[in-house]
Amino acid sequence: MDPEEALRVIRGLAKANRIRLTAHADREAAEAGATRGDIRCALANAANIRRSGRGRASDWTVVGPDLDGDDLQLALIIEDGLLVITVY
Amino acid sequence: MRTTELKRKLDGRTFRGQVPCSVSKKRPELGPLIEWDDLGVFEGKVVQSIFAQRLLGPESFRFCRKFCEMSMQAVADLLQVDRRTVQRWESEESPVPPWAMLLVSKMADERSKGRAVMRSWLRELADEEGRPTEIDVDVA
Hints:
The structure holds 2 protein chains of 2 kinds. Chain A has helices at 3-15, 23-31, 36-44, and strands at residues 19-22, 48-51, 60-65, 71-79, 82-87. Helix content of chain A is 35%, strand content 33%. Chain A is built from 3 helices and 5 strands, in the order H-E-H-H-E-E-E-E. Chain B is elongated and about 65 Å long. Chain B has a 3-stranded antiparallel β-sheet with strand order 1-2-3. In chain B, a hairpin with a 2-residue loop joins strand 1 and strand 2 (13-22). In chain B, helix 1 (36-52) crosses helix 2 (58-67) and helix 3 packs across helix 4. Chain A binds chain B through residues 17-24, 26-27, 30, 33, 35-38, 41, 57, 67-69, 77, 79, 84, 86, and chain B through 4, 6-9, 21, 24, 26-27, 29-37, 39-40, 43, 59, 62-63, 66-72.
């Protein structure tokens, strides 16, 4: 999957709420004050994407706006038609 | 059923809850995975506690606002204050007024239960147009 296609898939899955979080990502997001709404907003409107480095617990790193329009970066994998957020 | 503990720290208070979780067969190293809907239920229980216990504070206010999926500007428009005012409340430059906390936590509480009565009222109050200028009252 190329980055452009991945971005399209990520936006679509986010809009359909096909999302899971690792407990680790949830802890990090909570510490940063990000909520479920922020995460969904960032994914559904993600503007930038890059492949995560080798050996990382994610395939893609995306950046999108949270509910207030501030950039939020998330690392994720796409697995079985679901987005799995691994790192906030 | 396997569960994992979720935690939110807001204004010095810790909200805890156990939610169901699963583990990926392909990537077990990721650890417990939380379903999106379960995360929503947990956040809903947090806002219900904030409203039920009449908790007040900038982080609780922000959490309730975001639970309603509202930007600072959207909540400012609804409460008929400036966006900068909301920003000051949330950054502790000035205290969150109890009336604003009550309205936003009530909106969040209702949303967690699939209702939007308070939000509709506030939207109507913010809309000056379409208001009658002459009103007959029934005194019989």
